[in-house]
Give the backbone structure.
Amino acid sequence: MEKMDCLEYRLKRSNRKSMGISIERDGAVIVKVPHQAELKDIEKFISEKKIWIYQKLAQKKALNREGPKREFVNGQGFLYLGKSYRLKFIDDALRSQKSPQAAPLRLWRGYFELAESERATARESFMSWYKKQIKKQVKVRMPRYDKRIGVTVKNIRILDLGHRWASCGRNGIINLNWRTIMAPIWVFDYILVHEMVHLIERTHSDKFWRLVARVMPDHEEHALWLNENGADLDL
């Protein structure tokens, strides 16, 4: 087993003409190279593919790991921007007195408050709330990056993308997983920047990673955080 930084991999030499990387079912990283490939060239290749490797490992981890066992009961913690806030059910009559037009769910004074009448549809209330927060954050965060990257995002769609954090559509459209807002804001920014750069460069080429690094030099740390913690971002 070889190691580069924090990444362990198995090196396989053969008569092949080019280098390649595969992720096995058990999560093992296999680096396949020609017999004559030099170590410095191998390490350069791995470094260029590191984020792709982390993303694939994150997907494997999310698929093989049990999701969080959260129940919609008083005291249960729910994530928002990397922090956990406890849930508190509020009597409908009392809630109406305080704020008749209030949404079923709100984050208030360090607690998620949810109307008692919404207990049966609590998950839907959280998903709806998270989607609204993504829209608010996108309005604030996108202007930090779009001109620096040189892109115009025409629309953001918030969807359930399963184990994918985001995807880049055509014609300036970006799809974000509603779960992304559960991550710390700097990880949310990384996911957003990643897809914004894909509007310019569709593949994970050297040019793609140079553009990402230009506006977010520490992007590898954010990808690593997703690899280690992404499975917790769920209901």
Remarks:
- The chain has two domains: 2-48, 77-232.
